[in-house]
């Protein structure tokens, strides 16, 4: 017990929880302690106790383990933007592979699986070309940053070792200009995106209201300060236009080139946020798809057409399905940009369009799945099974929903062949996976 009466305990850290917390023992049940590393003996206090587990706060590292390192970012412990900078990069990769294995075995009941070593980044810094930050307004003005761990208090972003070097300066100038011009834009979130190959920067602002009065001075000055800022889009809670938002200056998309394919990516469309590792992801997807020039590829949740356009030259036909109309429009535009005449895009919910394809064709030989973090709805799994493709390549950023969906597909007479994790998000607990399953 410490000087103020808070009970403290000792434990040895044996492994990690799904969010990168060190896992030790507390009265016979697991305790999850952020910032603790495997192989360490730590002193901790209890922050939350449940019937089958507890959560702890690290008080002291009594015996340092071999996998602890110093964090590059001075704000690491306060910011909330990443969780693993206290671990060596090799240990981060170990943790991520074990997370995937645990999810497949525990959630999917997939015991005999081949999970490859995680594909690492050569230089795992300043890789993140998309950031979404929350806004807070108070006596000190507008603050943009991440939520501190387990709170709704925002820690201001002034520097970041994961983002492109330009981002903090843009956000600082944005806060200053918004404060200078008053409350015309009650900002909720700011999303900054950058093309690695093109240097284009696009800014999406989510607001509680849309008031254009006097705003031109803000946007003009911001673009003068940051010439690579190709456009600013405002998306209002009250806007009837929906997801598209209003382009207040410049254009509503940025350009990117990945593996020789040029993309126009709208402010509200999904695209991978690590351009360097996206090239590794594309290569893995292609290998697992085993393309053939006589076959039809179906790309589900295709977004702006990343996989569709990369693989178009290897198939007779590639069809993309996407619910976001803005992304579908961009995917069709990207087909023209890259002279891909053998691509087709259908707008709507995946599970509904799969029913139509089952009735009218064309039937796919291979399906790529890249759903949101929540995975596939049951109707999508049923629709895929009805089409009975000979192989499915599943791309996922959530091992838990990946495991759940793979288990459902295995029940539909498929066999899980391999899972390849890829480190798209160094220094965070997130991990991308590509899984290949084939019809029995």
How would you characterize the overall build of this protein?
The protein is an alpha/beta fold and 440 residues long. It has three domains: 9-68, OB fold (Dihydrolipoamide Acetyltransferase, E2P); 130-258, OB fold (Dihydrolipoamide Acetyltransferase, E2P) (Beta Barrel), CATH 2.40.50.1070; 274-439, 3-Layer(aba) Sandwich (Rossmann fold), CATH 3.40.50.150. Helices cover 26% and strands 31% of the residues. It has helices at 76-79, 89-106, 167-180, 216-225, 275-289, 306-311, 325-337, 350-360, 378-387, 399-410, and strands spanning 9-12, 15-16, 22-26, 29-33, 41-49, 54-63, 130-138, 141-147, 154-156, 187-194, 201-207, 229-236, 246-250, 253-258, 261-266, 296-300, 317-322, 343-347, 366-369, 391-396, 414-422, 432-439. The strands form four sheets. The chain has a seven-stranded mixed sheet, covered by helices on one side. Strands 18-17-16-19-20-22-21 form a seven-stranded mixed sheet, sandwiched between helices. A hairpin with a 2-residue loop joins β3 and β4 (29-33). Mean pLDDT is 93; it is low at 239-243.
């Amino acid at each position: 017990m410490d000087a103020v009466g808070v009970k403290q305990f000792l434990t040895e850290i044996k492994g990690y929880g799904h969010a990168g917390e060190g896992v030790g023992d507390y009265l016979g049940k697991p305790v999850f302690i952020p910032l603790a590393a495997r192989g360490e003996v730590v002193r901790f206090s209890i922050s939350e106790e449940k019937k089958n587990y507890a959560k702890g706060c690290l008080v002291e590292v009594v015996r340092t383990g071999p996998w602890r390192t110093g964090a590059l970012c001075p704000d690491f412990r306060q910011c909330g933007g990443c969780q693993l900078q206290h671990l060596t990069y090799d240990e981060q990769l170990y943790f991520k592979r074990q997370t995937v294995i645990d999810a497949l075995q525990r959630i999917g009941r997939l015991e005999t699986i081949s999970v490859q070593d995680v594909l690492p980044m050569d230089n795992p810094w300043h890789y993140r070309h998309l950031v979404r930050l929350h806004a807070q307004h108070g006596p000190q003005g507008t603050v943009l940053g991440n939520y501190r761990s387990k709170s709704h208090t925002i820690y201001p972003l002034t520097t970041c070792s994961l983002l492109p070097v330009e981002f903090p300066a843009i956000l600082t100038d944005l806060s200053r200009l918004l404060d200078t011009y008053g409350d015309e834009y009650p900002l909720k979130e700011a999303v900054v995106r950058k093309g690695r190959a093109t240097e284009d920067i696009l800014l999406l602002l989510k607001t509680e209201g849309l008031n254009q009065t006097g705003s031109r001075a803000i946007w003009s000055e911001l673009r003068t300060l940051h010439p690579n800022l190709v456009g600013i889009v405002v998306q209002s809670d009250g806007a009837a236009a929906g997801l598209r938002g209003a382009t207040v200056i410049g254009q509503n998309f940025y350009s990117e080139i990945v593996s020789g394919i040029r993309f126009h990516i709208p402010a509200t469309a999904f695209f991978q946020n690590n351009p360097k590792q996206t090239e590794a992801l594309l290569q893995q997807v292609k290998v697992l798809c085993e393309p053939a020039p006589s076959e039809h590829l179906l790309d589900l949740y295709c977004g702006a057409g990343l996989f569709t356009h990369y693989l178009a030259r290897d198939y007779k036909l590639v069809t993309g399905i996407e619910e976001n109309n803005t992304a579908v429009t961009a995917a069709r535009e990207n087909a023209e940009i890259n002279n891909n005449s053998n691509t087709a895009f259908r707008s709507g919910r995946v599970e509904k369009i799969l029913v139509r394809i089952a009735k009218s064709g064309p039937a796919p030989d291979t399906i790529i799945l890249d759903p949101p973090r929540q995975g596939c709805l049951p109707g999508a799994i049923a629709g895929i099974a009805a089409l009975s493709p000979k192989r499915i390549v599943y791309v996922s950023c959530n091992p838990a929903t990946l495991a759940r969906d793979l288990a459902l597909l295995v029940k539909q007479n498929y066999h899980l062949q391999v899972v390849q994790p890829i480190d798209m998000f160094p220094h965070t607990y997130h991990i991308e996976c590509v899984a290949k399953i084939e019809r029995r």
